[in-house]
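Researcher: We're teaching a course module on how sequence relates to structure. For the next exercise, students receive a sequence and then see the predicted structure as tokens, so they can try to spot secondary structure elements on their own. Here is the exercise chain.
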Amino acid sequence: MKTFLDEISKKIISLNYQFKDVKIVVPNKRAISFFKKSLSNNLSKPEFSPEIISIEDFMGEMSGLKKIQRIDLLFQFYEIYKTDNIGHKIDDFNEFLRWANTALDDFDEIDFHLLNADDFFEYESSLARIEEWAKGNSSNDLVKNHSSFFNSLKIYYEKIYKNLIHENKGSLGIIFREAVGNLEIYLQNTNKFHFFIGFNALNKCESQVFQEFLSLKKGEIIWDIDKFLYDDESNSAGKFIRKYFNEWNYLRQKKESFTEKNFELEKKISLVGIPKNVGQSKYAAEISEKFHNQSKKEKTVIVLGKETLLTPLLSGFSKNETKWNVTMGHPISQTPSSDFFDLFFKMHINISSNGFYYKNIHEILTASWVKEMFQFNKINIMSDIEKLVKANQSLIDPLFFIDQNNQNNLKTLFFKKFKDSKDFINRLINISDFFISFFGSIGSETIFLELNHFKRIKEIFLQLLGKNKIDLLGNDISSIYKTFKFLIRSEKVNFSTDSSEGIQIMGLLETRLLDFENVIITNVNEGVLPPGKKNHSFISFESRKKFGMFTFLDKDAIYTYHFYRLIQRAKNIFLIYNIKSEGLNSGEKSRFIYQLKFNNLKNHDLKEINLGYDFQKQYSKIDLIKKTEQVEKRLAEISSKGFSPSSLIEYLTDPIGFYYKRILKIKETEKVESTISYKDRGTIVHKVLEDLYKPYLNKILRIEDFNLMEKNIEDLINEKYELIYGRSHKKIGLNYIIHEVLKKHIKDFILKEKNLVKDGRTLEIIYLEKDLEKNISIPSLSSPVKLIGQVDRIDKLDGVTRIIDYKTGKILPSNLKLSKIENLFSETQFASSFQLLNYFYLYSSYLESDDAVQAGIISFKNLDQYFMPLSLSGSQKNNFIDFSILSLFEKSLIDLIIEIFNREIPFRRME
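Model: And here is the predicted structure for the students to work with:
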């Protein structure tokens, strides 16, 4: 394949320059290694490489300034801001960061375009004053402050410029401006011929430097654009290069000589619509591997429209020997190490006067490698978690974790309240050291990345320890966190691979000067490629137009150039776009796709593919589990302890669930609830009622007894609440409402029964929370089967025995009307009836055959109904249970237990 770098290499070699007399300037550092390899391949004999340098380094060399780190510049800016911000409220560093970074980018643009600061800021202030005047009395504070804001920016800009020059440092914009100022001196002191290769959109500094070299015949600029794209004035890919040939004196005299017609050559272009980002990355990996397996010599590139696709893309490669090279770097901000510190900051930012939130503690202690790191340091942190779960504490005092005898303990570093920002940052550094020591002890390649992530993050925290930075940050953790997020945003992990081999993975801007046989681009959606109108700037569109700065229209043209430049020499092109609308993504294909379809060049084999892939993993449900010998032994074990009504209901409603919970003993994970759970609400009500009625067992209740009960309700509810949630758990918000509702339920219930006694009825409590059991013999089973149950209450009302089950949820009388016994074993809505008949069956041995018996529910969300008895059609009178029903129930119950033990009947998923 003929590439642009090969063409340039051959041209430079043919000019017979000594390489030591040549300097080659390219748009970015990434292209340098590719250029050197191309020169090497086209030389007939070994030679020392010419100097190849990026434009940024070239301008730095001319300016004589050292580039300042952005974080140091921000802190210097903040000092100037605090000093010169007269008459306005001073933002803390956290708020300052919201706008300062944008302001610094704007300052760079002012310098890139060699603007006169006085003229520029005066123009922006005038626009703001005109807007304020036009709105008159309706203008808001934002409009009124706009003018003064730009006046302030002018002061900040001038102070920063002056301070940096004094320190012999510069931002990128200052470096470019100073380079232009030193251009004449540089030209007088160099004898090298300069080649400026593959540039497109130039700022004013670059334009002035290049023109000076051209006019003095000390340099040549070589463009990388296809003749078709240059000639097509409706295509903005050639916008800037056409402009330079119209405006530059040197180029106007020299007729353009674009002869390459690569774009019109034969190409296979596939326009592939796939839902979601993961689908795109998987498809890109699949297609690239096919090309790579067909021919290792063909050059293939995957260009990611979104960097976040890198991880799913790499996971999409098969586990063969496919070679790949990532040149874009993996952001540290998207790694588990960064996630850990996010959680650490979140935990300390969210701390209340009552302590840490359990949710935050649980998140950080279950993050990647944390538990293992504690274990390495001989600390069983999970035992603390278990204690918290058992205590059900949602707010945890920091002292719970801290060992007073060992202040350097890991738990102290994690959970002790910080004194000031210096103390907090030092703790972050110490925690980083613990992780670095832990990963170093493992000595495995699998944790190499994690080790280096923590080393780099530690360096970031060390950056913040300078005295002036600590003072400016103050003691606000949010400011430290905001600064950390800002710093880590630009940090990337570079992959160590052979850059010239395998499938190349890049961002669009990194493809400059490079050509590939097979090009695969993801996220070719409007708003992504090109990115559209994204205005992260304080500079108005009007000012940009007046002073010749780049507008969003120019940035669109820049992306258009890079897109067409990348595909102009390619043979196989896959443009993959998201067809699913989600979030800010409209699912609209990019204008680039529409342009290619509109051009419809005769040698372009254009085909559209719409793939409805859904890459969400499909988990297969287990529909059938056979009963083995081990299952049979476990069932016998359960039987010896007793089948409860709830376990039998579980089998009836979900045999697979019964298998997991009862056979395998897989319990639901215990978790701390910040809001009173439904289970705990029931526990509180049951325990309070038990304590209220216990003193009056086997006594006829009197009005005075209920009066005493009413007085004890408040204390008992608080006592039971604290047993579950601990004393530190305050009853606020929703918990307070639930607490008051439960109290009202209990009061209403006591009042209901008090009124029964007032009306002359006799009420006697026989049992509370009564444990019942019964052994039954089943001929087909080798040992007796035990049935167990615990009845909430058994009493006598006017001589009628009542078997009562409390429910804190809502139960309706219709749920307790049963037409025939068989329905209990086939219809899930009769679970409460099944439970009541089980209790009656277990309690029947305590009864005489002529006793009047009812079994029913008291629902605290339906207290108007009070006691709702089980109703069996044709076998009851006045809702009294006929003892003859027991034999029918027992027969069906035995049949159910035989089915549970029958090895020929597997556990099945219910339809």
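Model: If you want an answer key for the exercise: The chain has 35 helices and 28 strands. The longest strand covers residues 763-776.
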